[in-house]
Specification:
Layout (H helix, E strand, L loop, with lengths): L1 E3 L7 E3 H11 L4 E5 L5 H10 L3 E4 L3 H15 L3 E5 L3 H4 L2 H10 L3 E7 L22 H5 L5 E4 L3 H16 L5 E7 H5 L1 E3 L18 H13 L3 E5 L1 H5 L3 H11 L2 E4 L14 E4 L6 H9 L2 E5 L5 H4 L3 H5 L2 E5 L9 E2 L4 H10 L34 H11 L5 E4 L3 H9 L8 E3 L8 H13 L3 E6 H7 L3 H7 L3 E7 L4 H10 L14 H8 L4 E4 L3 H13 L4 E6 L12 H7 L15 H6 L17
Helix pairs in contact: 1-2, 3-5, 3-18, 9-15, 11-15, 16-17, 16-23
Length: 602
């Protein structure tokens, strides 16, 4: 390969044309981003390529989340492109989420021409001439980061970046592309795309595998906690077979509800701070806890630490867990198959258990949440009734997210995604669009008004592209989880996070006359609007009002709920004469203060 002058010659291509062809050859179907002078040549190449669709978002954070949603629902590499300066910096929170959640992305970031570096160029991030160095910004949140100094180096760096993104632990790779390098022409020995990069696989720890198998064979009862790694490895079938052999109860982490059938009799519920009490009960009865595809971070183990410390823990997955365990390492599917092969072929019976019984919620007839507001339980029941079995669901942060994780069963044949790596509000608007465009399936976005006001402008992108996304916005006119934290943990002396009432449905309807928009004042109207959206080919939007002081099923709030009685907040005293707070302090109580320990998150 040789680099030639910037004059079209037979047998030469622009660097960006080569890049677009390589992406197409790697199976990439969409590039998400926001344009600008220092990335416009790549967008031109994508357009000319004809195989890859360029999708222009309203904000670079949402462009990253579109690529993230694309990757999580297809298992393929997601690609995002942005220009230099502020556009590049807007990628940071989205890439940090992908890094923490092990999502394979490739970020192509435009840079000023190399001849202008260190000479006061607009948006210079070369690190020269007292400019800051973009590579130092992206390196900590990427598996691979390189500046492409010339056309020749791109041919070598691109496959390295793709391989790094797809190698465990997966995550973003970043290539910084100066404008003149993008425009340079190269002569290639052939026009066929390079072969797919080889992704190394870490071998299983055979000694740990033997020990793990012995522990599982010797256990009478087992609780499996399955995580997002099962979805990333497409290992649901292998998980189901292992569970069948063990006769185990199965819990899922909050970001992995879809990896096991939520209606299966062996399903124990969601683990952790948004989860179900039955999981802790099963863990207390189990001889062994088997982690599959999860390191068990705090949100997944909150409230379970004491029981975990008293139980043998085995971990299948490429990374070591956050708790003491016998860990096999290596490829997850290989580990599942190896362990299953060492168990007796006759399945064990699953011991009885109570299943994922929801945490009690406030009385729907209470004055504070009766009338124009809709309780989360009723709203999510309407969503469940309308949700197609092959739909994807993207759940945003806050009270909406905690309620949906706890109450809404995952669709049987779709993803149920919660971005817990960074927990950034507004993630779902881009991610849901990326998933819908990638798969063509109806995709639900469940978000609060706070998330909507951050990145809800991406509704415009869905309208422009006729993406099959149903946006459901739970409007409590507040950053309600912050409101509850202020009340419970800081004395309730502030009202910063309580807002004036907004009519989101009316605003969206005015902005997008072609969009099917509904303001749902009750559960029946919500369900009706969702079913109508399912029948359409493009986007739909539903907004409903909720109470900012409705307490979600979130473990850190549970002691306060028990102590005050949920209905005290509505002006009606429905708590027992001897409340939970009194019981907790009584020396003869079975539920003393130590047993009712507060779980702290944040």
């Amino acid at each position: 390969m040789t680099v030639v002058a910037d004059v079209p010659e037979t047998g030469t291509v622009r660097v960006v044309d080569h890049l677009a062809a390589e992406l197409a050859g790697a199976g990439v179907t969409h590039v998400f981003g926001v344009g600008g002078a220092n990335i416009e040549d790549l967008y031109d190449a994508v357009h000319r390529c004809g195989t890859v669709q360029g999708v222009v978002a309203k904000h670079e954070f949402s462009a990253v989340t579109m690529a993230d949603g694309y990757a999580r629902t297809t298992g393929r590499l997601g690609v995002v492109a942005a220009t230099s300066g502020g556009g590049a910096m807007n990628l940071v929170p989205g890439l940090a989420e992908a890094y923490a959640s092990r999502v394979p992305l490739l970020a192509l970031v435009g840079q000023p021409p190399t001849v202008q570096e260190g000479r006061g160029a607009f948006q210079d991030t070369s690190g020269k001439g007292d400019s800051f160095d973009a590579a130092q910004v992206f390196t900590p949140i990427s598996r691979y980061c390189a500046r492409v100094e010339d056309a020749r180096s791109l041919v070598e760096l691109l496959p390295r970046a793709i391989a790094a993104a797809l190698t465990e632990p997966r995550g973003p790779a970043v290539l910084l592309l100066p404008k003149d390098v993008q425009q340079a022409r190269i002569r290639l020995p052939g026009h066929d795309p390079a072969p797919a990069p080889t992704v190394p696989v870490t071998p299983l720890d055979t000694a740990a595998l033997t020990k793990a198998s012995d522990i599982l064979r010797g256990a009478d009862t087992a609780l499996v906690v399955a995580g997002e790694g099962v979805a990333a490895a497409d290992a649901r079938a292998e998980l189901a077979e292992l569970v069948r052999r063990l006769g185990a109860w199965v819990a899922v982490t909050p970001d992995a509800k879809d990896v096991f059938d939520n209606r299966h009799p062996q399903f124990a519920g969601v683990a952790g701070v948004m989860g179900h009490a039955n999981v802790e009960e099963c863990l207390g009865r189990a001889d062994v806890c088997l982690l599959v595809g999860t390191r068990l971070p705090l949100l997944a183990r909150g409230g379970l630490e004491r029981a975990l410390a008293a139980t043998d823990v085995v971990c299948l997955g490429s990374e070591k867990p956050f708790v003491a365990a016998t860990a096999t390492g290596g490829d997850l599917r290989d580990a599942l198959r190896a362990v299953t092969g060492r168990l007796a072929p006759t399945p064990r019976a699953c011991p009885p258990h109570s299943g994922p019984v929801p945490t009690p919620t406030p009385d729907p007839e209470s004055p504070a949440i009766h009338g124009r507001t809709l309780p989360y339980a009723q709203a999510l029941a309407a969503v469940e009734a309308a949700l197609p079995e092959d739909a994807h669901v993207f759940v945003d942060a806050g009270n909406t997210g905690a309620s949906a994780v706890h109450l809404l069963p995952a669709p049987r044949h779709g993803r149920f995604v919660v971005a817990l790596g960074m927990g950034g509000m507004g993630y779902t608007f881009g991610a849901g669009i990326g998933a819908a465009l990638a798969t063509g399936r109806r995709t639900y976005v469940l978000a609060g008004d706070g998330a909507f006001f951050m990145h809800g402008a991406e509704v415009h992108t869905a309208v422009e592209l006729s993406a099959p996304v149903t946006f459901v916005v739970f409007n409590n006119n507040a950053h309600a989880m912050c409101v509850l934290r202020e009340e419970f943990l800081q004395g309730g002396v502030r009202s910063d996070d309580l807002f004036g009432r907004t009519d989101i449905a009316a605003g969206v309807a005015a902005a997008f006359p072609s969009l099917d928009v509904t303001g749902a004042e009750n559960a029946a109207r919500l369900r009706e609007a969702l079913l109508r959206g399912n029948e359409g080919g493009g986007p739909a939007f539903v907004a409903l009002d909720c109470d900012p002081r409705e307490i979600p099923p979130f473990l850190p709030f549970q002691p306060f709920t028990e102590a005050t009685g949920a209905a005290d907040r509505t002006g009606r005293d429905t708590a027992p004469a001897t409340g939970a707070a009194d019981r907790a302090g009584h020396p003869d109580s079975k539920e003393n203060a130590d047993e009712r320990r507060v779980v702290h998150v944040g």
